[in-house]
Amino acid sequence: MGMRNQTQVMEFVFLGFSGIPNSHLYLFLPFLAIYLVTLLGNLMIFILTQLDSSLHTPMYYFLSHLSCLDICISSVTVPKILVNFLSQRQTITYNQCMAQVFFLMTFTGTEAAVLAVMAYDRYAAICKPLHYSCIMSSKLCTILAFATWVWGSLNATLHTALSTTLSFCGVNQIHHIFCDVPPLVGIACNDVHINEMAVHYSSIFVGGAPFLFTILSYCFILSSILKIRSTTGKCKAFSTCASHLIVVILYFGNGILNYNRSSAGYSLETDTLISTMYCIITPMLNPLIYSLRNKEVNGALKKVVGSSRKSKHHHSIN
């Protein structure tokens, strides 16, 4: 009976852009531009953290993971949206939908954990500067990075397994722009109590726990910064945290709006806007925030650009 109900709906139709007439014409280029900026920006950060030895520190090690995750989150959703704009059919197959749920939950859950680990790194650097290299050893960094991916994967496996138990009774219109757990639960015709409970508790543990840990870390960081006597020292300490803090507010703010809604949900327009901000705009903004505000990243970029210019000049002379 469960299999019959699952295969009853072979594809889903997204209604997220249905309120915009000829949306495929107006939205294809902006979404393509956002995706390209996301890929190039995050790829730049990732390559710089690998090439420049001055960025071979725990902070930039986790930033490279963040950049990788932002590319992944964007790639789970945007290419399918772009294909749908071109085909003028806002559809996705059942299997593609389940795959989208799994990878989206994996990457978003992992990113929440990575942001919390980055907060711990900033805490160790500012509150325990003399013991920093011992606390954030390369071994611990590797373990923490691996743990964040396991954290996200386990959460995704649970939600995807529960999503495959949903029956849709022929209803295949999703009030969303990509496959996610809350919209699927919203159109299911069987008992969804367990699924709703899973979303609720997951948002507390997978989203809420890293967020609270991050806030707690920043309480200690702020306390340490306020004890610094010189204004220059305070500014320098705070500047190392500013980029991360902006990214945290953006990510968790949109995440809370996306997964903690009433059973009635938001309007289709609001849902579309929040989802776009959470999974499409934020991954684009993260590398911009880090590259614009970070002197070390800017310095590394100038070094790479400078060395490439020198090599070109050398070749042209030869």
Structural write-up:
With 318 residues, this protein is mostly helical. It has one domain: Rhodopsin 7-helix transmembrane proteins (Rhopdopsin 7-helix transmembrane proteins), CATH 1.20.1070. It is 79% helix and 3% strand. It has helices spanning 2-8, 23-51, 58-87, 94-127, 132-135, 138-163, 181-187, 193-227, 231-259, 268-293, 295-317; strands at 11-14, 91-93, 173-174. A 3-stranded mixed beta sheet has the order 2-1-3.
Share of residues in strands: under 5%
CATH class: Mainly Alpha
Q: Structural class per helix/strand content? A: mainly alpha
Shape: globular
| Biggest sheet architecture | 3 strands, mixed
- Number of DSSP helical runs: 11
Any idea what the CATH architecture is?
Answer: Up-down Bundle
Order of helices and strands: HEHHEHHHEHHHHH
Helix content: over 70%
Overall mean confidence score, pLDDT: 84
Our measurement of the CA-to-CA distance between the termini, rounded to an integer number of angstroms, reads 74 Å
Q: What low-confidence regions span 5 or more consecutive residues with pLDDT below 50?
A: 1-7
Q: Rg from C-alpha positions?
A: 22 Å
Count of individual beta strands = 3
Named CATH topology: Rhopdopsin 7-helix transmembrane proteins
- CATH-level-4 superfamily name: Rhodopsin 7-helix transmembrane proteins
How many separate domains?
Answer: 1
Q: Enumerate the strands of the largest sheet in spatial order, edge to edge or round the barrel.
A: 2-1-3
